[in-house]
Structure formats: C-alpha cells, structure tokens
Specification:
The structure holds 2 protein chains of 2 kinds. In chain A, 30% of the residues lie in helices and 17% in strands. By secondary structure, chain A is of the alpha/beta class. Chain B is mainly beta. Chain B has one domain (20-137). Chain B has 1 helix and 9 strands. Chain B has one helix at residues 20-24; strands at 12-13, 31-36, 42-43, 58-63, 66-75, 87-94, 97-104, 119-127, 130-137. Classes of the chains: A alpha/beta, B mainly beta. Chain A binds chain B through residues 129-130, 133-134, 137-140, 144-153, 155-157, 159-161, 163-164, 167, 208-214, 257, 259-262, 264, 266, and chain B through 7, 10-14, 16, 19, 44-45, 51, 70-83, 85, 87, 89-91, 99-105, 116, 130, 132, 134. Strand 5 of chain A pairs parallel with strand 1 (12-13) of chain B.
C-alpha cells in the first residue's frame, strides 16, 4: 500500500507577509497580507479559492502562537469554501497542507489557501515566555509531566534528547554549530532574513547557554509573520502564470506514542516515522533530493531530519555536517537556504515549504543553491510532531 | 550538597483521574506507576488501557523508585523565575522497565555532576495537594 497522489496536487503560488521582531501588528493582519499575496502570486482571485487550511486552528494556548484560525481568515476574505480545515492534531505544522493535497486530489476543492501565522514576538512583549505560567496556572497535557520540574520550554525537552544523541554517537557542539552558522550565512543573503550579521564558531562557542548543550544560537527566534501556500488541483492549474510544483509525496507517520520522553530510542523522533512513511509513497530516493529545508526550531531538530530522511546513516549526522560545506549553498545538500527559523524567524514550519518552492522556481537570488534544483524536501516538527513533503518541478 | 532545599514554588500539575496516583503516592512514600495486570507492562504517562496488549485491566502500583539517568540537561536560562536556575532536568529510566521513563529533577548534587548512567532514587517534595517525585543520586 502506498499513498499515491498521482501528480494531482500542485503548488501554484506562495506569499509571505512582512516578517520581523515586534512588528506591532496583529497576527490576523499578517495572515490576510500573506494570503492575499499568495492568491495573487498564483494568478488567482479570492473568488477562485474554494478551500482553506491552517495550523493549528484556535486550539494552541500559548500567546501569539496562532495569528488567525481557518474560519477567521475565511470570514475576513469572504471565501466561498467547499472544503476547509484548521487543526493541530495532524502530522505536524504541515499536516493541514497535506490534507489539502488530498482534498484537491480527490476533487473536493480546486484551490486551497494554506497558511500559518504567528505573532509571538509582539504578543510576548516584555512579559517573556514564562509570563504565561504565573498565578494559579496548573500544567496539563504533556506539560503536566515537565512543568513541575521547571522544564517549561521545548528547549529543555529537546536539549535532553540532543544530549542522549551526543552521548551515544559522539556528535560535538562544534559539529552542531554548523546548523546555526549555515543558517546565518544564508539569512545574510536573504532580504527577508531577521538576523543577518555573520556568526562565527567563536561567537557560537562563547554564547550564553540556554539549556545544555544548547546555547542561544541553537534556539530559533520568536517572530511576527505569516506564510500562505496555494495548493491546487492540477487540472485547475492550466493557464496559471507559474510552472506548477508537483507534490510528489508526503509523510506523517506516527509509529509510537505522542510523547517527548517515552520513544523506544531516545536518539530518534517521530521525524523518522514521517520520513519512512513518505519514502514509501514515492520512487524518488534521498540521493535525488537537491535541497532540504528542515525544521530548526532548535538546531538539533535539523540534525534529526537529516538522519530521518536518510541523507546519512543513523548516528552519523555529526560527521555529515562537520565543517558545514556539505550543507552549504555550494554543497551536495544545501540545507535551510533562507536562513531557517534560527536566523529568519519562527514561522513555525511554513518558512521551509515557502523556501522549497522559491528554490524550485529558482527565485532564491543570492541564496539560490548553486546546483540545479529539481527536487526539494520540506519538513517540520520535532519530538512527536512531524511531517514532511517532497516537491518536484 | 546535603544543603539542598526544594524550590519554594513549582508549577503544579492539573491532576486528572489517571494521574492522581502518580502525584499523590508520595504522601505515603510510594512512586505509583500504572501497570497492566494482564501483561505486567508499565504504562507512563498513565492511561486507562495498556499500550502493549490493549487490556483495560490496569491500575497504579508501587515501583522501587530506583532509576538510571538516560538523558540530562542543565537549565540555565530563567524561563520561569519561580524556579531559580541553574538546575538539572533529566529523563530517568525505571529499574523495573528501562522503557518507562520520567522527566524529573536530579537533586542534591551539582547539576554538572549528573550524567547518563547515574543511579538515582526517588524522593518526594510536597506542595499543596501534590507530592512531586524527584530523584537523588544513590551514594556509591
């Protein structure tokens, strides 16, 4: 059995709102900006849009994590939808976009606007991340098992898993640093990057520690911004201005329980399940991938995706990224060509698919990968959250 | 560090029907973990069914409280000012079943001395209606 889209789902347009730190704009405004840009980019008008999908819906509590829900955007633009979805219990942040691919493939919609918006930077303001946990707050969900121990940040949960990986496989901080240095170098070539000044290994090694082994530069940055992607039925894309990007396959496998600390092998994540299920759905092989846009909410998550997607043998990512050459724009597998979330802001997964499309359309400008880009992978999530999408042109 | 003092406050859990035993067993000095009474597997976080064999014949049962550190971090950044940094956060494997783990604090030793493979033993810190299981290194 395999999930074969048969080339019926394509991407026809992308849009990114103003993105930055403390823009002082609402997430709703940014969402509308990104969606209107994407619709125009696809050569469509709002009347052509008959589907809406977004992550996470209204459900995630933390301040600024959701700029607008599916139905809010739907109402604001007056969309006449035949199909819509807003959800967080899906295959990671890209899950609703995968669902949209299935919807258009089966003919439930022609053009679905898929979006993700965040305004954490403005929403957190001077209160900081911890501000949500004061007073009579009691921890529930997975936080029930971590917050009583002061581990309220994903930085803590993922740092422990990174520690276990380093302990078993000998990966060093100098090797891990290459994820952050590579992202910063690429953000310097991206006009939409947020942190663009050069970052050296010395800067990295002397940076303040957040949660060992993570320093400041291993952690992405809260941002305000929104991204929208138009997923279209191929038969409905004829005559549109852009060469449609083929959604070759996607994967959102979850083979173990949804927890951060009970996975049988603590040195793997649900990324391994998602990637395995994606490769079952395509004839394309990891060696065919030209660029990889891999979630870096924390640097170690990119390490996980590199391994999970089969770009190097299990346990050997430290050596794979050593020196940074292999994952640079000139390398065999350019990674996070826009600067990732580490240097271009936490747009929570959608920056990666936006950039994968940009690279496939050869519109990366100074940050365009030096090789010919025909196949790209975009992946989002960490811990039990995971989904990945394979695109081709 | 025999002068360890538990934090004045912790963020406390929203206790559920399933988690009540875990968070209150410490009142009697017991670390209570859900156990499948059919296949004998441990289940954590607690759930009303056994993920090994799907039996619903499950109930909280005391375990030894002996465990081994499987992963660790030192939280340095002050995410939550109520809990002074730095402090150790660790994932520990229960002696009865290494695939059943708790995220916890290793207390009573310098955080930088916590290491993978370290043997630890549970104790409890009492706040309001909650007895928080934490772990202290076993003297070698």
């Amino acid at each position: 059995m395999s999930g074969d889209l048969q080339g019926r789902a394509v991407i026809t347009g992308i849009g990114q709102s103003q993105t930055g730190r403390r823009l002082g704009r609402t997430g709703f405004e940014l969402t509308i900006e990104a969606c209107k840009k994407a619709i125009a980019d696809a050569g469509l008008s709002v009347e052509d849009i008959d589907g809406v999908a977004s992550y996470p819906g209204p459900g995630l509590g933390a301040t600024g994590m959701s700029g607008a829900s599916t139905t809010q955007l739907h109402a604001a633009l007056g969309i006449k939808a035949k199909w819509y979805l807003g959800a967080s219990e899906v295959a990671g942040q890209l899950g609703p976009l995968m669902e949209a691919c299935m919807a258009v493939s089966l003919g439930f919609a022609n053009h679905v606007v898929c979006f993700r918006s965040v305004w954490e930077s403005t929403a957190q303001g001077s209160g900081g991340f911890g501000g949500s946990f004061r007073g009579s707050y009691r921890a529930s969900g997975f936080m029930e098992w971590t917050a009583p121990y002061g581990a309220i940040s994903a930085a803590n949960w993922i740092a422990m898993l990174c520690d276990a990986y380093m302990h078993r496989n000998g990966m060093t901080r100098e090797q891990l640093a290459m994820i952050a240095l590579n992202a910063r170098r690429n953000a310097g070539l991206n006009p939409a990057g947020i942190y663009r000044d050069p970052l050296t290994l010395d800067d990295y090694m002397s940076a303040r520690i957040i949660s060992t082994p993570f320093c400041l530069f291993d952690c992405d940055i809260p941002a305000d911004g929104a991204i929208a992607i138009i997923v279209s039925r191929r038969d409905a894309s004829n005559g549109l201005p852009r060469t449609p990007i083929n959604v070759e396959a996607f994967g959102g496998g979850l083979y173990e329980r949804f927890t951060w600390d009970q996975r049988a092998d603590l040195t793997t994540m649900a990324a391994h399940d998602a990637a395995a299920s994606m490769w079952e759905n395509t004839k394309i092989k990891p060696t065919d991938v030209d660029v990889a846009e891999l979630y870096d909410g924390f640097s170690y998550l990119t390490v996980q995706w590199i391994e999970a997607l089969g770009f190097c043998p299990q346990g050997e990512v430290g050596k794979f990224i050593e020196g940074g050459g292999r994952i640079s724009l000139e390398g065999q597998l350019p990674v996070n060509t826009h600067g990732g979330q580490l240097s271009a802001g936490r747009l929570h997964g959608y920056g990666f698919i936006h950039e994968a499309c940009t690279q496939l359309w050869r519109e990366g400008g100074e940050r365009q990968a030096k090789k010919d880009v025909n196949v790209a992978v975009a992946a989002a999530g960490g811990g039990p959250i995971a989904g990945c999408i394979l695109l081709s042109i | 560090m025999s002068d360890y003092k538990s934090p004045e406050t912790r963020i406390l859990p929203e206790i559920t029907d399933e988690s009540r035993a875990f968070w209150t067993g410490g009142e009697r000095g017991e670390l209570l973990i859900y156990k499948c009474l059919d296949c004998q597997g441990l289940i954590h976080p607690p759930a009303p069914a056994c993920y090994h064999c799907q039996s619903i014949n499950v109930a909280p049962r005391p375990v030894s409280g002996r465990a081994t550190v499987a992963a660790k971090t030192i939280n340095v950044h002050s995410f939550n000012p109520a809990m002074p940094s730095p402090f150790s956060v660790a994932i520990v494997e229960l002696e009865e079943d290494a695939s059943t783990r708790l995220t916890t604090n290793v207390i009573g030793c310098p955080p930088e001395s916590v290491h993978i493979g370290m043997k630890v033993q549970v104790e409890f810190e009492h706040y309001e209606d909650v007895w928080v299981p934490v772990f202290r290194p076993v003297a070698s």
